[in-house]
Amino acid sequence: MLAADALPPKFQQWFASRGWSPRAHQLEMLEKARAGRGALLIAPTGGGKTLAGFLPSLIELTERPKRNAPAGVHTLYISPLKALAVDVERNLLTPIREMDLPIVAESRTGDTGEARKARQRVRPPDILLTTPEQLALFCAWEGAREYFADLRCVIIDEAHAIWPSKRGDLLALGLARLQAFAPGMRRVGLSATVDDPDLVRRWLGCNSPPPRGEGAGGGGAGSELTPPSPTPSPQGGRGSNIDLVLGSGGARPVVEVLISGGRVPWAGHTAEHAMAEVYEIIKSAKTALVFVNTRFQAEFAFQRLWELNDEGLPIALHHGSLSAEQRRKVEAAMARGALRAVVCTSTLDMGIDWGDVDLVIQLAAPKGASRMVQRIGRANHRLDEPSRALFVPASRFEMLECRAAADAILENHLDGEPPRVGALDVLAQHVMGCACSEPFELTALYQEIRSAGPYADLSWEDFETVVDFVSTGGYALRTYDKFRRIVRNADGLWTARNAQARQQHRMNVGAIVSPGMINIRVGGGKRPMGGRKIGEAEEGYFEQLTPGDTFVFAGQVWRYNSLVGADAFVSPAPNDDPKMPSWGGSKFPLSTYLASRVRQMMHDEREWAALPPDVQEWLTWQKVRSAIPNEGEMLLETFPRGKRFHLVCYPFDGRLAHTTLAMLLTRRLDRLGVGPLGFVCNDYALNIWSLRPMDDLDLDELFAQDMLGDDLEAWLDESFMMKRAFKHCALIAGLIERRHPGAEKSGRQVTFSTDLIYDVLRKHQPDHLMLRCARHDAATGMLDIARLGDMLARVKGHIRHKSLDRVSPFAVPIMLEIGRERAPGDAAGEMILAEAEEDLIAEAMP
Amino acid sequence: MTRFQPSACGGLRIHLANVEVMLRWSGALWLETECALVVADLHFEKGSSYAARFGQMLPPYDTRETLDRLDREIALLSPARLLFLGDSFHDGGGEARLAPDEARRLEGLAMGRELVWAVGNHDADGPKTLPGAVIDEASLAGLVFRHEPEPGARPGEVAGHLHPAARITSGRATTRRRCFVTDGQRLVLPAFGAYTGGLNILDEAFSNLFAGPMLAGALGPRRVHAVGPRSLRPD
């Protein structure tokens, strides 16, 4: 390990002038750089992580000998957040200015002005701070190879947040491209704590050295291409060029679970019962971040807290639907230390450091230990002081989950992610980008792409399919051969057809597809005109509202008046009770690790002692009235209630997997003549009700794994989820443009939707690449098929059936979910629910 | 007052300026007395026009799909006359881009029946090599057929061009469908082509045409649904 005096004197003095000494991991990063090694630095926030990433570059640039020709970019910094790139630019300028270093550092994001962008193109800064989308644009530049020829280092910030996503795929491909431009380039990742650093290393690393010399321009000019040998890339080589550097762990966080008023509600998602106590706790803290899982929960909590806020504490709201301006205001107020609390969603999971946060509150269960660790990391960036976190469970099962999460965090046992397989729609975009930049040779590009972690196992067949798709759309009907987007030139290399094709690609770069957003504007009446914009919401939200309905947004109650094009017009309705539709639970599935921990905790009665008395009583009566399943078992209960018969089972596999399971079970039950009428799911259980009893069903048959075959296919292809997934894939792959076809017909908008394209394609070429991509995305992201498959395998032969004469204590929460989705603020609804709740509890417990 | 009469075939029988016609759930119009089938706005080769003009590779199966739909109607009704009510091709180059197989299918449509192409704004010249008569407008059974509806009162006019669609609300649910739209005096047909979108019938392009209250015949799976003005919503 290097000693502190390994730093150049100027740097030593600078550290000393600030009263700092270089941290061990900062020196280790420098050592890796001098050895020419890539590195992944894992350190908690506040550990000087960003400086550790930049320090080697700052020193290298300072010691760089003078050259006659202007140098290119030396270090490229990439952050998933635009705001973070700008913030880091500011932070980086401090040491540069204070040490008077001859270094130019500039950011470039979608918001950067055209003049600055043009200047950067001619005179590259030494350090360029940017986003993954900008990198994708660089890769499509003509002349990108020359521009990045001097590149020595790429730093990826928040690597943990970006790698397991389509943006991560695109970024990995961009890195492979840069490596081909600048073979000496080092890759550096900065990450918060992750369970399996090897997965991030594999993603970040270069899997096989890029073939230098061979490829571009050489060989393969004939039209018959021989695929390179199909040997899989060497496992040992994966990510091994990335060394792991660990920052010191800091103090262990202090995590508590709040049991408000000594009771835990039976069901619910909002933790409304605990709000008064949460308010008191906020009062006792300097600055608190109050995390929730959905923006609706955020609105709800924000409103309740302000109802209690007699002292007028500055409490703000931050979520993805608020306008960018409003969010920036909140962030700025937070940075000034002007706020006492912010109610927020995952929008604040990462980002700019705020030193003064001393408490993180999680309302409702966190759903995963890793996310929670990152959220807790937002508090107390001084490493010697422990972060403080408080869980507020909203229901009894959540109580178990919070307990499990608190234990997991103390033991530093985080949820694992599955390895990432790169998406083919993203690959299609990248291939088009490469063709826009310079002509490529097919096998050379294939090798380059396979050097990117997520594409290490890409088959030649899939690669060819993607290239054919980029060129002609990949249709069995070859009508587009004469309109190819990429063509082979005289040398046999592939290149973009013309300037129009290049321009089109640049307009459509990126792997973020946001759902259609509707602007929320103030205005009413028959022909409302351009009122003030208060924010945005996903288009699906307003489909559930009827004009006249009231809802909470940005902390206020509004009446919905009308929807005109992409604008929803609303007027203030301060005195109304909000009717808030689409009140869902978490959008995150419960992590596999936490789920297994909850199952274990439930079964092991020694663990019960740590739980509040009412939860213990609930578990005890469950044991008496029905059963507590063993760790390896799944409990399934059948019982009559009213005129219906219920089947309730408890897989603990998250709402997504449960919903898919319930859909498929319902189809089967229908075929069995049971007459299923409906179902409801939460993270812990699912509940199906029917006309006829379900006590005598062959359960192994019912849960047989073959339900993931034809039943799934048949249902999936009709589902709106497939249509949505198709639209996203088609946008990313460039099949449709972000500006929709038909938009050129100005004035009268005779547009046609991607649903029409989907229907026609599904009918006439069901195995098309875009449908494959859409099926894959729907199966993983929206349906959690993999999780469901694991679950069906796990419970096979281990279903514990209890045929009961009435509802069990465990079943009460999921019974209460029936009809709950409507409106928590609706007084009549609440009353009906309250009555139903008393009834159910009386039935389940003596 | 217009009266919609459901028919066993899923269509709606209406009197249009005192002539009885059938609105089919496919989006076609059937004149039983004349044994004539009328379809509007087929927009053949719309998919390939995006490839030709913008290099955008939409699935090239729209012509095939539209022909499949047309074949189903022809098999059920055996029309002696087939009238395309304009914008049959999405652009003037569409005919030349037809896949050979689909060109043959189009030629086959003229076998044993009268095929008539009314021209529209997208295909002002009509087809160059395909069989059939090319006309501006046609009179049949006391009705006038043309692509673009003419402003003012035009009793007995049947047109296309506008691609009518209705956004329909019932209770909390909303759906958007292609539709026929009529006031009992004139009729606008929905677009028949696979890639054709729709214009909401509450757009002023429609209110300028109809004097009386508009009724929509919304296309559902296997049925045309009669929808009154109270259930209609703007987009």
In a nutshell, what does this entry contain?
Chain B: It holds the Pfam family Metallophos. Chain A is an alpha/beta fold and 846 residues long.
Number of domains of chain B: 1
What is the CATH architecture term of chain B?
4-Layer Sandwich
Output the structural class of chain B: alpha/beta
Overall geometry of chain B comes to: globular
Stretches with pLDDT under 50, minimum 5 residues of chain A: 209-227, 229-237, 581-586, 740-751, 820-833
Keyword list:
heterodimer; A: 846 residues; alpha/beta; Rossmann fold; 6-stranded parallel sheet; 31 helices; 40% helix; B: 235 residues; Purple Acid Phosphatase, chain A, domain 2; 10-stranded mixed sheet; 8-stranded mixed sheet; 18 strands; globular; Helicase_ATP-bd (chain A); ATP-binding (chain A); isomerase (chain A); nucleotide-binding (chain A)
Notes on the structure:
- The complex is a heterodimer of chains A (846) and B (235).
- Residues 209-227, 229-237, 581-586, 740-751 and 820-833 of chain A have low confidence and may be disordered.
- Among the domains of chain A are: 4-208 and 240-246, P-loop containing nucleotide triphosphate hydrolases (Rossmann fold), CATH 3.40.50; 254-411, P-loop containing nucleotide triphosphate hydrolases (Rossmann fold); 517-572, no CATH class; 592-707 and 797-844, no CATH class.
- Chain A is of the alpha/beta class.
- In chain A, helix 9 packs parallel to helix 16 (424-437).
- Chain A starts with 8 loop residues before the first helix and ends with a helix.
- The longest helix of chain A has 18 residues, at 827-844.
- By secondary structure, chain B is of the alpha/beta class.
- In chain B, the strands form two sheets. In chain B, strands 9, 10, 11, 12, 13, 14, 15, 16, 17 and 18 form a ten-stranded mixed sheet that branches. An eight-stranded mixed sheet of chain B has the order 1-2-3-4-5-6-7-8, with helices on one face.
- Chain B is 18% helix and 33% strand.
- Chain B has a single domain, classed as Purple Acid Phosphatase, chain A, domain 2 (4-Layer Sandwich).
- Chain B is built from five helices and 18 strands.
- Chain B is globular.
- The chains are: A alpha/beta (846), B alpha/beta (235).
- Chain A binds chain B through residues 469, 472-475, 477, 479-480, 483, 485, 497-498, 500-501, 504, 543-544, 546, 562-565, 735-737, 741-742, 748-753, 756-757, 760-761, 763-765, 768, and chain B through 48, 50-52, 54-62, 64-65, 97, 99, 163, 169, 172, 174, 194-199, 203, 205, 234-235.
- Chain B: This is Putative phosphoesterase.
- Chain B: InterPro entries: Calcineurin-like_PHP, Metallo-depent_PP-like, PdeM-like, Pesterase_MJ0037-like.
- Chain B: It comes from Caulobacter vibrioides OR37.
- Chain B: GO terms for molecular function: hydrolase activity.
- Chain B: It holds the Pfam family Metallophos.
